[in-house]
Amino acid sequence: MKALIIGGGGFVGSYLARQLVQGCHWDTTVTKLPQEDVSVEGCEAYNLDILDQDAVEALLVRLRPDVIFHLAAQSSVAFSWKNPQKTVEINLCGSLNVLDAVRAIEGYAPRILLIGSGEEYGMLPPETELVGEDTPVHPGNPYAVTKAAQNWFGSLYARAYGMEIVMIRAFNHVGPNQTPQFVVSDFCKQAAEISLGLREPVMHVGNLSAKRDFTDVRDVVRAYALLAQHGRAGETYNVGSGTAVAIQEILTQIIAQSGAEIQVEIDPAKLRPVEIPVIRADISKLQQDTGWTPEIPLEQTIAETLDVWKQQLQK
User: Fold this and answer.
1) What is the DSSP letter of 257?
2) pLDDT tens profile 230-242
3) Residue 31 clears pLDDT 60, i.e. is over it
4) pLDDT for 266
5) Which 8-state DSSP code applies to residue 265?
6) Best CA proximity match to 228, nearest among 166, 179, 171
7) Is residue 272 scored above 80 in pLDDT?
8) What per-residue string of b and e applies to 264-284 under the rule 16 or more CB within 10 Å gives b?
9) Cα(149)–Cα(88) distance, rounded to whole angstroms?
10) Which one of 65, 154, 157, 268 is CB 3.0 to 4.6 Å from 167, fit for a cystine?
């Protein structure tokens, strides 16, 4: 099996590459941006701008992968509020470039996984917390709007052109080496800096009352690999833990594991214009079709993320 990860230079891409090479034993190639470094043994890397459709098509003609994982995205909700146009260009136009490049190659019909987000569900009706794939989407931020549109295009292309497209709505995934623009890594970095005496013992946080569905990134990429093999074309799958955890609870765990005395202050810059109170994934469809279940507890993810930040900050 030949796999291509488009956008493999990011946080999830490196984990997915290891899963495909070491766990699935697939011939795996990744694309990245010129400034990114992908160092996964047995995995070849190419620079690619997904906004250049000709370049995307040329690479697909050269490699002809059996499975394409489309991860390339502007994935920060905060950045999407600041620059919605760039978010649209990368997340929607980039995805269409991939789909149209595949269509342009005669006799070529790979399996394509379009990675979307649990953010697509957005503002839920009152009393609704658990969301299934059939729950109507009401995206509440520019990032979520682009991912919802990507999902609709994937579904449309699967129906209209008979393409082997599987859509994924991935909920919050966390783990070591995630950038600090995401909440768990942000808190872990701040706590590591404080425990090492690199900053004052004050953590700056946003909204702590929101509850989110968090899954270790290594469990997430296992789900992606299983969906590449067993997912049904034209269908959407939630990928998450099925449990909602309050940001306050995560903060409490991180502070406890850091072993430091830490004060907490609300930073208005970390608050979003629109905040969804509670959201968790119904993962019964994923489990029924693939047999997947999460294996790594959040406490372990936090401990390992803290340790990695401490190692990096001490270099």
Assistant:
1) H
2) 999 999 999 999 9
3) yes
4) 87
5) E
6) 166
7) no
8) eeeeeeeeeeeebeebbbbbe
9) 10
10) 154
